[in-house]
Amino acid sequence: MAVLAGCASVAGTAVPGATPRTAASATETTSTSATRTSTRTSENTRTSETSRTSETTRTTPLPDDSVVSSAEETDAPPQNLPIGESVEVTVFDGAGTVTLVAVERKAAGADEYADAPANGNYVALDVSYEATEGELNYNLFDWSIRDAEGRRYDASGSYDGYEPSLSSGTLSKGNKARGLVVIDAPVGPLTAEYTPSSIAPATWAIPG
Fold first, then answer.
1. Per-residue pLDDT tens digits for 90-115
2. DSSP for 84-109?
């Protein structure tokens, strides 16, 4: 019968040229193999998780910030209105209508006691208010003028003598107020601004 040299028998009987294996070495081999298998499984799991995370990151849409809306853009007051046009005003305790009725330029004050205009001429804004809901405040300091370079001119304490001047107060629903706001401003094209509180102004174009 032929004998295969260098092989160990299945029953564990020693065969010449074969290296005996102990139970401990078999256990170590099994443990090493299991560790390698576990390591490969862990690496495959991490790779799979990383791949899924990367795919999720790539496919998650970015927020669309190309359209931005704001109260200032949506409710912006009208600009460069013609003289005589009205604006609707809404405040926390009421609403109403404000109108720049007419504009006149004056080269001098109304009487001999009036101060001479320092900036070129007096611009008399004839303005009116009407409360349509709740209460509406009116005040000559709601108004100002800007020149073509953007410089602002307000009603000052100088005496111009023009009447009836707008004072200040509060209108209840259905009541009206009207008067002149006279501002010392330059000649040339101007812009009248109505700015109650701190909101953006409504504006009227004043030809030069």
1. 988 999 999 999 999 999 999 999 99
2. T-EEEEEETTEEEEEEEEEEEEESS-
pLDDT tens digits for 73-94?
A: 446 789 999 999 999 999 889 9
Instruction: Determine the Cα–Cα distance for residues 173 and 178; give it in Å rounded to an integer.
Output: 15
How deeply is 206 buried, as exposed, middle or buried, from its count of CB atoms within 10 A (0-12, 13-18, 19+)? buried
Distance CA 173, CA 168 (A): 16
Is residue 135 within 8 Å of 172, Cβ to Cβ? Answer: yes
Q: Which is nearest to 178 in space by CA: 102, 112, 126?
A: 126
Q: Which helix (H) or strand (E) holds 10?
A: none
Q: Pick the closest to residue 96 from 204, 194, 200 (CA basis).
A: 194
Rounded to two decimals, the pTM is 0.64
Q: Which amino acid is at 172?
A: S
- Tokens 């004839």 -> residue: 126
Q: Residue 140's closest CA among 105, 113, 169?
A: 169
